[in-house]
Amino acid sequence: KDIYELGMRYRDRWPQQARLIHRYNAEHSNKADKYTLWSAVELVKGYIQQGSQEQAEQAINNLMRDYSNHPQLGVELCKIGNAYLEVASLDPNDRAKGPYAEKAKALYQYVLDRSQDGQSARLWAKAGLIRLDIVSGKDAGILKAVDQLIEEYKRHTELGKVLFWLAEIYYLKATELGASLEPSSYYQRAIAIWQRITENLVDSTYTPMSMHLMTACYWRLGEYQHAMECYQKLLDNWPNDEFVPRAKLMINRCRTRLGMTQ
């Protein structure tokens, strides 16, 4: 545990040293310890972020060999798939990173094909494939896939986190486009997924955060009435939430934009 936590402290500022620490932990510590597994995963992610494909693949092979029967292997492989997806360039001319998206897809599919993996691993694997389609611009069937995910895993404690993760990529794509391109369709898709959280997962810790970002989308779309209504719901249902001061401020701003008196 101490070695793993040391590696995590080094990760952002000294990534090379962090990889060395995690490698040592993965190779020399007790394989039955979850922190050894986590170090092995962090080692793979470090290689991916560095762009060291061969080393990443070798570390994945070692992970699969050493933890083939571990109940958490599927979830951890999904995390590696997510790491590939974060750095993937879908530009076919970018030979350095282009294959990363396919590597992510292969890991997600591998998890789904493993009969011994539990519901959490399968949930994240299916969500990973959906996010891959979002990143790839294959938007036609996304909301249908999201609804199927909700129906299948509606009682799973991590569903809210997964859905928030999917909506987030649409929000990021919209904000990255800026004013030079039309981002409205991305905001609308983000809203559609976050609405599914607020309507189906009322008790999720991700529900007030989803409500807050929905209102941010409405504000950016110029739909101030909808934004004001969402902010008011946030105040009514989560009066102690960290976003409450912001919600009060934005309600006044919405009223101003709508020409309403304070």
What does this structure look like?
There is one protein chain. The protein is 74% helix and 0% strand. The protein contains 13 helices and no strands. It is elongated. It starts with a helix and ends in a 5-residue tail after the last helix.
Strand content: under 5%
As residue ranges, the low-confidence spans are none
Rounded radius of gyration (Å) = 21 Å
Q: In angstroms, what separates the terminal alpha carbons?
A: 55 Å
Shape, per Cα inertia axes: elongated
Task: Give the count of helical stretches.
Answer: 13
Count of extended strands: 0
Share of helix among residues?
over 70%
> How confident is the prediction overall: mean pLDDT?
88
Query: What's the helix-strand series?
Result: HHHHHHHHHHHHH
**Structural class of the helix and strand makeup?**
mainly alpha
The major beta sheet can be summarized as: none
Please outline what is shown here.
The protein has about 260 residues and is mainly alpha-helical.
What is this structure's SSE topology?
Blueprint: H1 2-10, H2 15-28, H3 34-50, H4 53-66, H5 73-87, H6 99-113, H7 119-136, H8 142-153, H9 159-177, H10 184-200, H11 207-221, H12 224-237, H13 244-257
Helix pairs in contact: 1-2, 1-3, 2-3, 3-4, 3-5, 5-6, 5-7, 6-7, 7-8, 7-9, 8-10, 9-10, 10-11, 11-12, 12-13
Task: Provide key terms for this protein.
single chain; 262 residues; mainly alpha; 0% strand
